[in-house]
Amino acid sequence: VGSLKAAENQSGKDEKVEGKEAMSRGQRKRLAKREQYLRRERMVMSSLKIKTLEDQKGRLDGLDAIKDALTATIVNKNNP
To answer: Cα–Cα distance between 3 and 78 in angstroms, integer?
Structure first.
C-alpha cells in the first residue's frame, strides 16, 4: 500500500509542475534560468527608474516652486 501511494504521488508530481504540463529536467532548468533573468532585469530596470526619479526630483522641486510662485502672483493680481 505504501509503494502504491508513493507511485501515485510521483505520477502526480510529473503531471503537475507548477500548474504546467510535465517538462523535462532541461526544460525546467531553462525556464528557471529565464525567470531568474527576467527577475534580475526587472530589478535593474526598477532601480534605474528610481534613480532617474530621484535625479529629476531635485530639478522638479525648483520648477514646482516657480510654478507655485507664478500661480500665487496670478491669483493675487486677480483678487485685489
So the answer is: 88
User: Which residues of the chain fall short of a pLDDT of 70?
Assistant: 1-20, 58, 60-62, 64, 80
DSSP secondary structure code for residue 51 in this structure: H
Distances (CA, A) of 48 to 51, 52, 67: 5, 6, 28
Query: At 76, which amino acid appears?
Result: N
Distance CA 55, CA 75 (A): 31
CA–CA separation, 26 and 5 (whole Å) = 27
- Flag whether the pTM goes above 0.85: no
The runs of H, that is alpha helices, within 1-80 are: 2-15, 25-78
- CB 8, CB 16: distance < 8 Å: no
- CA 62 remoteness from chain centre: 30
